[in-house]
Amino acid sequence: MNDIPLPKPKKPQGIKRTKGLQDDLKKAKRATRIAIKKQETKVAKAQTKLVSARLSAESKKKSLKEISQALNGTETTLVDEGTLDNTPDNVQELVKNQEVIFQPNNGPQTSFLASSEREVFYGGARGGGKSYAMLVDPLRYCHKAQHRALLIRRSMPELRDMITHSQRLYSRAFKGAKWREQEKEWRFPSGARIEFGYAENMTDVLRYQGQSYTWIGVDELPQYPTPDVYNFLRSSLRSVDPDIPVYMRATGNPGNIGSQWVKETFVDPSQPGKAFNVSVETPNGVRKISRRFIPAKLQDNPYLMQTDDYYIMLASLPEVQRKQFLEGDWSAFENSSFPEFNPSKHIVQPFEIPKGWARFRTCDWGYSSPACCLWIAIDWDNNLWIYRELYTKKITADDFARKVIEAEVGENMRYGILDSSTWARRGDVGPSIAETMIQEGCRWRPSDRSPKSRINGKLEIHKRLKLHEESKEPTLKIFSNCVNLIRTLPLLPLDKNNPEDVDTNAEDHAYDALRYGVMSRTVHPKSYDANRYTEKEKFKPADRVFGY
Fold first, then answer.
1. For 213-238, how does the pLDDT look when each residue is reduced to its tens digit (9 = 90+)?
2. Helical axes 509-518 vs 453-465, angle rounded to 10°
3. More confident residue, 20 or 90
4. Can you give the pTM of this predicted structure?
5. How far are the Cα atoms of 40, 63, 86, 105, 333 from residue 51, in angstroms, in the given order?
6. Which listed CATH number (3.60.15.10, 3.40.47.10, 3.90.580.10, 3.30.420.280) goes with 343-537?
7. ∠ at Cα 211 (206, 212), nearest 5°?
8. Is pLDDT above 90 for 257?
9. Which CATH architecture fits 108-325?
C-alpha cells in the first residue's frame, strides 16, 4: 500500500481566475455603457419628436380656438385665409357662411391691413378708404388682454366722426364690446382697449406721456406742421406681451401743411409699397425700424367709383389740387404761397461771388424753433443771390453769433437784418437777443416792423420770383446748397383766414429770413443789362441811421 503513489497537488488557480474575472467585468461595463448610450440617443430622439408633436398640436388647437371664438362671436370675426386653409373643409365652409363685418378692398387697403412693418403710412388721393382701414387695423389683437390701441385725430370734431364709424363696426365685430363715452375708449371682452384721442399740438399730446400702447394710429398725419407730435407718440409704443408686436400707423393726403416732412419720412426713401429700414438712436444704441409707404388712389375704392359724382368733383378742381386729391401726387406743391417758384429757374449751382457784388445777411431767430440766417449777394443789376444758409436749432444767441461770424470770414458784410422781436428785453435787466449777438461782434439792424410788413414782404418775394419781361429770368436766385430754403419755400401754404399771408404754423423760418432781406432791397431795375454797371449804381446802404 505504501507503493501506491499519492496524487500530485493541484497548482493554485486564484491569480488566473482573478485576471479572467477582471476582463469579463471590463467587457460587461463597456457593453453596458454602449447600451446606455444607445438608449439615451433613442430617448433624445423621442423627446424631440414629442416636443415637435406637442407644438404642432398646440398650434392646431390655437387655430381651432380662434375659429371657434370667431364663430361664437366672442372675438374678432376677421380670420385670415392661412388659418382657414389648415382647417377641415366643413369648418371652412361654416366660417365662409358667417356675416362679413368688413371686407377690405383689393389692393392698397388690403396691403395696409396685412403689413407687418413697425411703421406704415397709407396716403394719397381722397376717397381711397384710408380712414376705414385705420379703424379696422387695431382690431387685429383685440382678443388679447394686454392689447391697448390709441387712435389720434387733430381736432375733436374730426375725432367724433371716427367714433361714429367705430360704433357701426366694433360692436358687431366683437359681441360684448362696450363704448365708454367719458373715457372715449372701447373695452373688449378680453380686456383689450382702443382709445380715441385728439392732439392739436404738443400741449395736447402731453396727455399721453408715460402711457404705453401696443398700437398707435394718426389719421390725417400731414395736418401736423412738424413731426414732433408723431415722434412723441411713437415713444409710447411698448408691449408687455411678447405675442403682441407694436405698430405705428398713419394716413393722410398731400397738400396739407405737413406734407413735406411726411413726404421726406415715408414717400421719398423707397419705392411705393416697398419696405425700408431707418436707423434710430436709442439708450441701448442704434436700432433699425422698418417702414413702408402704401399709396392710395380714388380708383382703389369701388364704392365711390360706382358713380361719377365724386370723381367729377375732384377732376374739376384746379390742376394742382386735382393732382393731389384725385391722383395722390405728393410732388404737386405748386399751389403753395409761391406758385412762381420753378427749380429750373430759381435754383443754380454755387459759384464764386464776384468781389464787386455787395453782400449782406438776414436772419429769423429761434431757439426751440429753427433759427435761419441767409447770406445774400447783390449783383450790378440789383438781382439777389442767396448763396449760403445757416439753419440750426436749440443754440444760444452768443453761440449763433459766433457761427455767423465764422461763416463769413474774409467777406465784407454791408449790413445784417435781424427779426425786430429780438430787440425786446428779457425781463427788467440783461441784454436782448440782438444785443447779445452784437456784443459778440455780429452787427444787425432790426427788420421792418411796419403794420403791413408781412404782406409787403410777401409781395416783394413774388416780384423777385417772377420772370423778367426782357431777360426771362427772375431777380432772385438760390444756390443749391441752401437746402432748407429750397425745401420749405415752395411748400408754404396760404393762411386760411388771411390769403394774403402765409400760414405761420408752417415751417416758415427760412421764408421769414428771406422776407426781411428782400424788404431791405425793394428797388427793381427797369431793364436787364449786365453791362450797365456804373459808379453811380454802386451799393448804397438802405438804412441811413445805422449806416451799414
1. 999 999 999 888 888 899 889 888 88
2. 80
3. 20
4. 0.52
5. 16, 18, 20, 41, 59
6. 3.30.420.280
7. 135
8. no
9. 3-Layer(aba) Sandwich (3.40)
